[in-house]
Amino acid sequence: MLEVRGVAAFYGAIQALHGVDLDVAQGEIVTLIGANGAGKSTLLMTVCGNPRARVGTIKLDGEDITHLPTHEIVRRGVAQVPEGRRIFPRMSVFENLQMGAVITDPAHFKHDLDRVFAMFPRLAERREQRGGTLSGGEQQMLAIARAMMLEPKIILLDEPTEGLMPRMVSQIRQIIDVLREEGVAVLLVEQNVPLTLEASQRVYLIEKGEVRHHAPSAELRVDDAVIHQYMGV
To answer: Which residues of the chain have pLDDT under 50?
Structure first.
């Protein structure tokens, strides 16, 4: 589904990604692991067109999306849940979900809303509550639900469990499983290594903007020496 080939990206004159290759299949959970500043979030943002890949190609279902504007990339089925959630704090839960559906067919809205409320019953209970008054875990649920309203083929999920209590981390883990069961692919950035190895099928280890190692998650669950090498965990 998602194919990244030889991608290089820059912030001004500073090169952040160096010839990155990566694949995510339909319904697959793929994790990016690396130390802070390794280029994980930059790769997610580059897939969405900001920053733009200066070298290489990014394809979705065989279509080259490398040079498309971000809104066109989103229209083709790429949704991002950024680090820090970035919901609209003064808008209600319902209004945040409306924003997520802004580019989809209005005829699908009720079906999609019922779908995310079934997946996130806590949000249904807080439908009229302002986003900024939700707990951190509830805000993360809202950010994921808003992405689901886009009817995505793939979700780019950046640090979804950061700062959450263990109970909420477990719920986020379950949500990732539900996404996979529904056929939605996930490219996951997450510092919680045990969770990532349990939730994903494959892992890419990134260091200084380069993919240094690629392996099935099951392999790294048995032998995590490579993770220790690149993360010191």
So the answer is: 233
Separation between Cα atoms, residue 81 and residue 145, nearest integer Å: 9
Which of 3, 13, 14 is closest to 56 using CA atoms? Answer: 3
Domain ranges for the chain: 1-77+187-233
> Rounded to an integer, what distance in angstroms lies between the CA atom of residue 47 and that of residue 73?
8
- Write down the H helix ranges in 61-129: 70-75, 93-100, 109-119, 121-125
- For residues 158-171, one letter each, b for 16 or more C-beta atoms within 10 angstroms of the residue's C-beta and e for the rest, the string is bbbbbebeeebbeb
- Residue corresponding to tokens 């066109």: 72
What is the value of pTM for the model shown? 0.90
> In CATH, what is the architecture of 1-77+187-233?
3-Layer(aba) Sandwich (3.40)
State residue 168 phi and psi, 5-degree precision.
-70, -35
Per-residue model confidence as pLDDT tens digits over 38-48: 999 999 999 99
